[in-house]
Design brief:
Largest sheet: none
Structural class: mainly alpha
Number of helices: 17
Mean pLDDT: 84
CATH topology of the domain at 107-292: Hypothetical protein af1432
Low-confidence stretches: 291-299
CATH superfamily of the domain at 107-292: Hypothetical protein af1432
Order of helices and strands: HHHHHHHHHHHHHHHHH
CATH class of the domain at 107-292: Mainly Alpha
Strand content: under 5%
Distance between the termini: 39 Å
Helix content: 55-70%
């Protein structure tokens, strides 16, 4: 069971303070407060975000990308908000702000690019899988929150890279030998990235369930400490990371399921089959090959009906 005792919390808070948190701009915090109301007026949203012209430009670039697949191009924050609705618009703003904050955080550019690519791939897979959930499980969770879980789940790694010069070797060891990263961190007596991520995302005003899933994302989804909603999000995240690792492989991943019993358990729990996984993977792969003619449109983040 993944929990933080008071001593651990104080140690991690001290680490977070020493290296600094990749912080959201003030307008993001203002927007989060505004979105606590049911449906803020478009002019009120635009009034806040227009205080940060650079963030507006980056958010509009993201919104006009294939990820969101709007019916038409947008040229203003107010127009984007009106088309997308509050939840999806807020996701676009948070994603743009996070990328901007990480870019100025002082991490090696190559490492940061790999981290961001993995995070955005995982986020899109989380969202695509969440949209394919049926009935009860689909109603329990929010697809946009699933996207944010994929985007933020490894943010603790970035902070540990800044805190400890040797951490990059631990990441390589985990990747090359397929070792559980949290266990490796404990073996080297380093704070676990999942716990650092849990503490640091409080400032980004993420949903409480999503923050707890960041804390727990290296324990099995069906651990007794997880409630049903956490189990769904954690199973989605695990499957999304699995798909992210398969993204640039030449051969289909069907044979890989048999050696990963946890993946089969997660598929069964969510009611998703391997054909669905293959379809999602192929849709995402098409987005990585823009030079080839597209037959189908890539997976888009669904917009709110507001």
């Amino acid at each position: 069971m993944q929990q933080l005792n008071q001593n651990e919390l104080e140690m991690i808070e001290s680490l977070v303070q020493s290296v600094g948190i990749p912080s959201p701009p003030n307008v993001v915090l203002e927007l989060s407060k505004l979105f606590e109301s049911d449906a803020p007026a478009p002019k009120d949203v635009a009034h806040i975000i227009q205080k940060d012209a650079a963030l507006v430009a980056k958010t509009l670039t993201a919104i006009n990308s294939p990820t969101f697949a709007l019916r038409c191009a947008v040229s203003s924050a107010q127009h984007a908000y009106t088309l997308m609705g509050p939840t999806t618009f807020q996701v676009a703003v948070l994603a743009s702000a996070l990328h901007d904050s990480l870019t100025s955080y002082g991490i090696d550019e190559e490492i940061l690019e790999k981290y961001w690519q993995h995070s955005t791939n995982t986020a899109e897979f989380c969202h695509a899988l969440a949209l394919r959930l049926h009935a009860h499980k689909g109603k329990l969770i929010n697809a946009e929150h699933a996207y944010l879980l994929g985007l933020f789940h490894d943010i603790g790694e970035i902070m540990l890279l800044k805190h400890n010069a040797k951490y990059v070797e631990i990441l390589k060891e985990s990747s090359n030998r397929h070792l559980n990263l949290s266990r490796l961190e404990r073996a080297f007596e380093i704070e676990e990235h999942s716990k650092v991520g849990f503490v640091s995302t409080e400032k980004w005003k993420l949903d409480g369930t999503i923050r707890h899933c960041i804390l727990k994302h290296h324990i099995p989804f069906n651990d007794p400490s997880n409630n049903e909603k956490e189990q769904i999000y954690l199973a989605l995240l695990s499957l999304a990371e699995f798909l992210s690792l398969q993204l640039h492989k030449d051969s289909y991943l069907e044979q890989n399921y048999q050696s990963k019993s946890n993946i089969l358990d997660e598929l069964h729990f969510l009611g998703i089959d391997t054909q669905c996984m293959k379809d999602i993977l192929e849709e995402r792969q098409r987005k990585h090959m823009p030079q080839k003619p597209r037959i189908d449109e890539p997976e888009a983040i669904a917009v709110d009906e507001h």
